[in-house]
Amino acid sequence: MARILQFSTVRAKSPDAPAGRPGQPPGAGRRVVAEPDTPLSAAEAQRFRALVLPHLDAAYGFARYLTRDASQAEDIVQEAFLKAFRGFSGFRGGDPRAWLFAIVRTTFLSAARSRAAWAEPATAEAIASEDDTPEGALLRQGEVAMVRGAIEALPEPFRETLVLRELEELSYRQIAEVTSAPIGTVMSRLARARHMLLAALSGETES
Fold this sequence. Notes:
Number of helices: 8
Distance between the termini: 26 Å
Helix content: 55-70%
Structural class: mainly alpha
CATH class of the largest domain: Mainly Alpha
Number of domains: 2
Strand content: under 5%
Oligomer: single chain
CATH architecture of the largest domain: Orthogonal Bundle
């Protein structure tokens, strides 16, 4: 199935935090907790920065959809980043983005269990293109907000699977690694998530 509804327009990376300046690495515009003192050697620390730091914005986007709250997503990524740094000696290769996403997900689940309730979803924003007319920008913002809201309304297992596949473009195997679910379960959740999303969007359109 082709990427539905141009999912790249509903990424959660940019609306809630400033982007880095031109020439800066990914995540440069986002506040990052200083790396703690760890047994990592200088070479390992440098390897961590090279492999993991470029995926910081993507991790925030994933956390943003998991938490449905910008501030909580920031906290989740901060904690996950520190956990990843402290545990980097146990990284045995593979896709560092999937490895980081698994830590983000575990951190989110741990935080969710310790909270009585999560805050209401933050209002979605959209960044208008310089070529947009005011009318076109308003229309596009409305469409993006509608799709993002529909994604955030999905139950957690389906929401995270859809985001990992359609927004972050992870493979089924990578999603299985992140969520600790069999590939068959991943495929089933993805199919159901797509169905629920399209049904939600159809309802919005008809209303």
